[in-house]
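Entry: Helix-turn-helix domain-containing protein
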Amino acid sequence: MASPPLAVLHSEAASALELLTVPQVMARLQLGRSAVYDLLRSGQLASITLGRARRIPTHALTDFIRTRLEQEAAG
């Protein structure tokens, strides 16, 4: 089995490390600011703080959506 090209691996790593702002997450989830901050505060959506800025890794958003889908399917 051949390994994927280096460019593919690089783009996957870059997208995994992409950081989103709260407004970007608001737009992607179609939720308001308070709802997104509630998800962050409750730990349902992981984030990092850089100075005073809050950033959400794209993989954290993907994990959150996957978890919610699994909960919906189970319940």
